[in-house]
């Protein structure tokens, strides 16, 4: 099973970017994602951006994660 979290790209210094996960910022590898720009959203798994997602998808995933965490 793969667990990935959506994050908004705030800064790019290839092959890394700083992604914002609801206020928590982390440095992630971005060499698996083509043509990434600041402001776009990515899914991150174990420190690697694995796919771009649009803002609506990212927000929906954030809500799902919040609900899952509440239920623990």
Short structural description:
This protein has 72 residues and is of the alpha+beta class. The protein has a 5-stranded antiparallel beta sheet, with helices on one face.
Task: Summarize this structure as a short list of keywords or feature phrases.
alpha+beta, 1 helix, SH3 type barrels, 72 residues, single chain
How many β strands by DSSP? 5
Query: Stretches where pLDDT falls below 50 for ≥5 residues?
Result: none
- Strand arrangement across the biggest beta sheet: 3-2-1-4-5
CATH topology: SH3 type barrels
Reported CATH architecture = Roll
Q: What is the average of the pLDDT values? A: 95
Number of domains: 1
Distance between the amino and carboxyl termini? 19 Å
Helix share, percent:
10-25%
Describe the protein in words.
- This protein has a single domain (5-70), classed as Roll (SH3 type barrels).
- The chain is built from one helix and five strands; from the N terminus they run E-E-E-E-E-H.
- It has one helix at residues 55-70; strands at 5-13, 16-21, 24-29, 41-45, 48-53.
- Strands 3-2-1-4-5 form a five-stranded antiparallel sheet, with helices on one face.
- A hairpin with a 2-residue loop joins strand 1 and strand 2 (16-21).
- The protein is globular.
What's the layout of helices and strands?
Blueprint: E1 5-13, E2 16-21, E3 24-29, E4 41-45, E5 48-53, H1 55-70
């Amino acid at each position: 099973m793969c667990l990935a979290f959506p994050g908004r790209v705030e800064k790019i210094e290839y092959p890394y970017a700083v992604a914002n996960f609801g206020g928590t910022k982390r440095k992630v590898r971005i060499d698996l994602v083509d043509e990434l720009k600041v402001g776009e959203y990515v899914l991150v798994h174990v420190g690697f951006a694995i796919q771009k997602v649009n803002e609506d998808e990212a927000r929906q995933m954030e809500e799902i994660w919040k609900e899952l965490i509440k239920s623990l």
